[in-house]
Give the backbone structure.
Amino acid sequence: MKLIISAQNSSLESQVDRRFGRCTWLILFDTDTNLWEAFQNPGVSQSGGAGVAAAQFVVDKKADVVISGDFGPNASRAFQAANVEMLRFTDSTTTVQEAVDHFKQDKLLK
């Protein structure tokens, strides 16, 4: 399964970014292979529509699940239309690796 996690930096040790549309990095993690790749968020520098641009990137990468602290209404609608599951975390010190581990243990909020 392919996950995309909003992150403050480009590593698994990075903290998850609570902002989806304005996060700096989007980390793609494949739970089948444990391979991952970091991408700069294409929405971060946009003056408007950051959430939609980031959501389109997630859809284009064929992610099954996106993990972040918060999703705006436009990004949420885009994910619902594309059948991408949105999961939230509540701990502000969660790393990307911890978010992946919590996903595997079914501990993230829908």
User: Anything to note?
Assistant: The beta strands are 2-7, 25-30, 36-40, 65-68, 85-88. The longest strand covers residues 2-7. Helices lie at 50-60, 73-81, 96-104.
